[in-house]
Every structure is written in C-alpha cells, then in structure tokens.
Amino acid sequence: MIKYCASLSFLILVSFIFSSIAYAQATNSSVVEAKKKEYLSLVEKLRKGSPETDFGKLRRAYVNWKIAGGKPEPHPKREEMVKAFQSTKHLEAVKAAEEVIDSEFYNHNIFGAMSDSYKALGNQEKADFYNGLFHKAQHGLFLSGDGKSPETAYYVLSISEEYRVMNDLGYTALVQSLMNVNGQAYDVLSGKDARGTRVEVYFNICFFFSCGPK
Q1: Mean pLDDT per 10-residue run, the chain (214 residues)?
Q2: What is the pTM of this model?
Q3: 104-162 pLDDT, tens digit each
Q4: Is the separation of the CB atoms in 57 and 42 below 8 Å?
Q5: Cβ neighbours of residue 104 under 8 Å, at least 6 residues apart?
C-alpha cells in the first residue's frame, strides 16, 4: 500500500511538473506573439507615415520582441536580395526587398539600397519614398532614448552604433563598461564632451547580448 501511494504521488508530481512547463510555454508564446504584433503594427504605421509613431519606438519594439524570445530568423529571400543588389539586378533586388523589408524595417541600409535601385529603374516616387525612410530609420537611433540612464538608454543594434552616437554628439569615448540592471544588459561609454566635461552615455545592448525578460 505504501509503495502504491508513493507511485501515485510520483505520478501526480510528474503531471504537475509537465502541466507547469506547458503553461509556462503557452504563456511565453503569447508574450512573444504580443511583442510581434506590436512591432508589425508599428511597421504598418510607419509605412503609412502615421505621426504618432517613429523609428525609435520601432527599435524598442523589435528589441523587446527579441528579449521575449521571438526575434525572427532571416527572411528566406534575404540572401537572394543581397546578391541581386550586389549584382545591380535592380528589378530582382527590389522585388525581393519588398518581401524582406518588414522583418528588418529598422535597417536603414536596405532602405538606401531600395531607393538607389528604384531610381535606377526610373521610379522616382518609390526612390523618394524609400530615401525618406532611409533618413528616418537612421535618425531612429537617436529617438530610441537619450542615453542619460539605463531606463532611457539608446537601443543600439551593434557596437558601431554606440560610437556613432558618441561621435555625432561630439563626445570622445575613453572607457567602455558593461552593466546589468534587472536582467537587462547595457554598455556605458564614459568620456568627455568638446569642453572636457565628463560624460556617461548608456546603451541598451539586448539586440546582440543575452538578456532576460523585462
């Protein structure tokens, strides 16, 4: 009888563990889906030129989607697109890019390439449209935060963007350090401004550094 009770207790425990795992996975999946919808909603608004959003919000939404565990894999046509741009096969390039771009709407380089290809194809309207997005996406880095604290850090997609910010602000970076706040990773660049005053600028690096859920 004791052996039977022990076995029953073990089965109940196993069942509880698997139920908990399944619940956690379902919860995580719903969070990922919510973050994905937030990102795609912003993409749609930016395509339409809606004034209530900007590329700073898009950067934050994309990084938060990644933190939740949902950063998308490269689009199946991405490699085809890159090869077409490199070979100046403009028509093939823009056709592939029109499919790829939603998954990388933060990427100003694709917008620039699309603008150049549409211009080569004689479609000035499209060239102007994507040239506008190119400049807005570039500026999105500076709209993603102000760099004054971890809570208002710039959302960077590469280390080179950190130094771009420092350079554009007229700062000289002297020391780079890594910090963790509530499971989120930040780079802190310390240096001096043009007057020699000490400055510290914070960068959220969860796009390329492992971070826990917010």
Answers
A1: 45 35 51 94 95 95 91 88 98 98 95 98 97 96 97 96 97 96 96 97 95 79
A2: 0.81
A3: 999 999 999 999 999 999 999 999 999 999 999 999 999 999 999 999 999 999 999 99
A4: yes
A5: 75, 110
Residues 205, 158 contacting (CB under 8 angstroms): no
- Encode pLDDT of 151-163 as tens digits: 999 999 999 999 9
Q: How is residue 3 written in tokens?
A: 């052996």
Residue 73 pairs with which residues in a beta bridge? Answer: none
Domains along the chain with CATH numbers: 1-72 (no CATH), 73-143 (1.25.40), 150-204 (3.10.50)
- What is the distance between the alpha carbons of residues 126 and 128, in angstroms, rounded to a whole number? 5
β-partners of residue 172 are 192
Task: Classify each residue of 66-86 as buried b or exposed e, where b means 16 or more C-beta atoms within 10 Å of its C-beta.
Answer: bbbebeeeebebbebbbebbe
